């Protein structure tokens, strides 16, 4: 084996080693839910059929967002055994904005910025055990952020 062949083999091996973690991350990606074009299909992709309202979910979001490209959302679940928090925006081209998973006693709290295409209902769904709970808030958007 000459030097050039050895270098090619090493570069190819290095590329494979670097791409392996990306494949592992992609395995956890819920493509049907995130690519759904309406809330019903997104919920179906997440495996959610029945959702009940809950006062144990704290949602802090603006009543009026001047720019839909940066809408700050803060969510805290006070439901024991919270496993996930999903953020959906009804009138976005793809309504499922985020799906956070919690394990090992992690505090079910999220603060993030999302994009909103237009004024819409912002819906939070929390999974705890085999049950799903939700809270919603109407957010008015002056300048749409998706497009």
Residue fraction in strands? 35-45%
Cα end-to-end separation: 54 Å
Overall number of domains = 1
Low confidence ranges:
23-27
Give the overall silhouette. Answer: extended
What's the CATH architecture? Sandwich
Helix content: 25-40%
Count of beta strands: 9
Query: Mind summarizing the main beta sheet?
Result: 6 strands, mixed
Class by alpha and beta content? alpha+beta
- Give the topology string: H per helix, E per strand: HHHEEEEEEEEE
> What CATH first level would be assigned?
Mainly Beta
Oligomer: single chain
- By CATH, the superfamily comes out as SoxY domain
Radius of gyration, CA atoms, in whole angstroms:
20 Å
Question: CATH topology, anyone?
Answer: Immunoglobulin-like
């Amino acid at each position: 084996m000459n030097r050039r062949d050895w270098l090619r083999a090493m570069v190819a091996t290095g590329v494979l080693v670097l791409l392996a973690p990306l494949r592992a991350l992609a395995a956890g990606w819920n493509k049907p839910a995130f690519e759904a074009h309406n809330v019903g299909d997104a919920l179906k992709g997440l495996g959610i059929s029945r959702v009940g309202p809950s006062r144990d979910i704290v949602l802090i979001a603006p009543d009026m967002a001047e720019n839909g490209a940066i809408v700050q959302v803060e969510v805290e679940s006070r439901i024991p055994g919270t496993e996930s928090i999903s953020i959906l925006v009804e009138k976005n081209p793809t309504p499922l904005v985020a799906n956070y998973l919690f394990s090992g006693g992690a505090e079910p709290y999220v603060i993030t910025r999302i994009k909103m295409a237009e004024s819409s209902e912002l819906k939070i769904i929390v999974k705890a055990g085999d049950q799903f709970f939700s809270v919603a808030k109407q957010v008015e958007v002056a300048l749409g952020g998706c497009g």
